[in-house]
Structure formats: structure tokens, C-alpha cells
Amino acid sequence: MQKAKFKTRSLLDTIKLAAEEFNVETKYVDLTIRFIGASNLPRVHVIGTINPCFRAKLDGKVSYASSVKSSTSSPVWDETWIVKQVPCTATLSVVVRHAETGSLVDNVIGEFQTTITQGAKEAEIVGKHLSQNRGSFWLNIQTSPSAHNSGSLPYSFDGPIHYSRHDSPTVGALTKLRDTRLYSTWKIYIKGIPQFFNDTVQRWNHDYKAAQAIFQGPTSIAVRSGIVAGHRMLYARTVLNGFGVITSPDDVFRLLHGGSRAPSGDGSRAFPNRIKPAVYTYVIAKEDKSLRFSETGAAFFVEFASKHALHSSCAESVVYSGEFHPRPEGGWDTFSDETDDGSVEWELVIDNNSGTYSPNPDLLVKVAQLLEFNFPGIKVVALGHDNPELKKSRDACREYALMKRGVKTTELEPHATEGEETLLQQVSLRRT
Asked: From CA 341, how far away is CA 328, in angstroms rounded?
């Protein structure tokens, strides 16, 4: 029975070893993998249900993280993953997990491996211990010969562009929440990074005092440990996350709509269906090829040494980092709130304002090209952090938020409300 369970894995190893031994030229294919669903998944605890999700990898080179399904042993995902220039001998590995709210790690249900041969597949999910059956997984793989068979850019993710929204764990403890967006992070998996940047990365800035405290010196290990734990809590995958696919400019700007706001008593209104004038802190991470961001005034930044390090999970290098903000064509200073958002063209203004990584300003144009490649139809304006036009545009964005959208001055920078337990405090409590 155990041999049967690992039969696929043994076959994969045999194929790869034979190809290497006989110097067989590796052929490359483009894959469209449809993850359909699973059935008969067991509970990981004696009491309660499971919230299944999975992570798939191709030869450990590129990965896909699924959405989380709530309270079901037979989840239906119907999610698609397109990867180009994959060796025909590649192995697809999938680990199925239970996402538990409040836990820093997911509970592994089981895993399986399979070839990337074309067709519908039913795979047996096997437990890590004792190799017991942990349910079945259905998927469909479509293949076609790669246009460029040289493998110069192997394992190239090619969509769909999918995202997840995560709320800080501090949200649940708050009763007077002013704006939910100040407790949220977003992660968008983007394509084309190798094509635009090759292996170029931005290392941490050795001349920046806050970065020095994180990456060097006798106390840096403790500082990094706290930031990494905070990152895991912020980006934990739970049933409370929002998930989706981006197919149009409207989908992008919908992520930037104003959130729910508590009544302020000053007559200001909420604007949940309009683009919020706000500045965002972002990193483009190299390990999972994702764009991660949050409002620069996000409450969870309080007490942390670096906003960008919190988003990057203390990575010593990133593809790029900085800030961005949306604006109507012509700028916020010429915009009228009587104008419908759908009747004007919107832009993203992106910069390299990051002390932690101090990214090369000469590469800003590539960042703009990368985002326009991922979000066709959106104009991206690249401005260096010392460009006067950037300050003018950013100030106009914030001024509009204060004057027209009921945003408070304190919300423009990281802050904690009276009696609020901060993210760093929660991290400290969990580590004691």
C-alpha cells in the first residue's frame, strides 16, 4: 500500500535521473492548471470543522497560494494557475492545510505529488505521518509547447493576477474602529518580474539607522524576530481574508475604495464605494513575486522600526519598495467630489520612498512598466522621492482626504487609539 502511494513520486525521480544520465534535451511546456477541489478531508482537531486551503509548487521554483474555504471537508476552489516554460519532467507538489484563525501556522492535512502530463487527475492526499489517506484532490492540467524552448526564463508565472486582503489581528479587539482600511494589508501576485528585473534586487540600506537596527548588531536578532512574527500575523491566511482575481482597471481601483468608518459625530460621511485619497507603503517581494501594501498610516506600524521591513518579513533584499497613491488625471487639487469616479481617468503615482531599502531611482521606470504590464489600461506615473512634483501630488492627495473625506490628521501616520492593544504588543504576548 505504501509503495502505491509513492508510486508517482518514484516514477518522477526515475524520469529525471534517466534524462540526466542520457543527456536528453529537456523540452519545455506552458501549463494551465485548474485546481478543482477536494473531498473527504479529515478534521485536524477532535472538535470543530476545517477551513481548507493549499499551496502548490512546481519543482520548488514557483508557487501558488489558494483561497481559504470555510467549514467544509469538500472544498471547491476552481482556481487557475498559468506557468510558462516549465520542464516537461517537472513535479507538481501540493500541500493541503487547515487555516486556523489566530494561529501563526497552518495545520497540515496532507500532501501529494504528480506529473504535469495533460489531462484530468484525481490525486490521493497522503498524511505526513504514517502515510495515511487524507482525502482526494481533483485538478486538470493543460499543456502546450513553449514558444521559446530554451528555458531562458523557466517557471514564469503568467496569471491570473490574484490577490488577498488581510486584516490585522488587533481589529477583533477594537470596539471603536475608525477605519477598517487602517488595519488591512493586501497581497497581489504579479507576473513579469524576471522579464523586467532579471536578478536585480535592492538590498537593505547600510547607511540607514533604522535598517542597521534590524539587520546588524547584537540586538538585531531580537528586532527581526518581532518583525517577522508581526508579518506572519498580518499576512496569515484565514477565512476572514478577502480573495479575488484582477481582470480590469476597475478591479484594481476597487481595492483602493474607502472602507467602513465608524461615526465620528462631526458630520463626516463614509465613502466605501469611492477611491480613497490615501498614500500606500509597498514592497515587491522576490520570494513569492508579490506586491504587498497597506496605507502608510496603518495602525499596525506603531512601534515597528520599519514599515517596509514589516511588509517584506525582514527580507535582506526586495525587488523594489516605496510608496504609491491614486489620483484622478490632473491631480486631486483639480478634482471635484461632485464628479463621478467612473467619469475620469485614474492614475497610480509610484515612488522609491523607502529608507530601509533605498531603491535605485533609475529602476522606477521599470516598476511603472511592470505595473502597467500587470494592470493594462492603468497609467502609472513614476516620480523619484526627491522630485518636487511627487511632494505636490502627495500633499494634494492628503489634503483632499482631510478636507473632503473626513480623514483625521492622526490617520495619515501610524497611530494607536486610546486603550488599543498594538500589533507589537500582541506579538510580545504570544512569544511569552
From this structure: 8
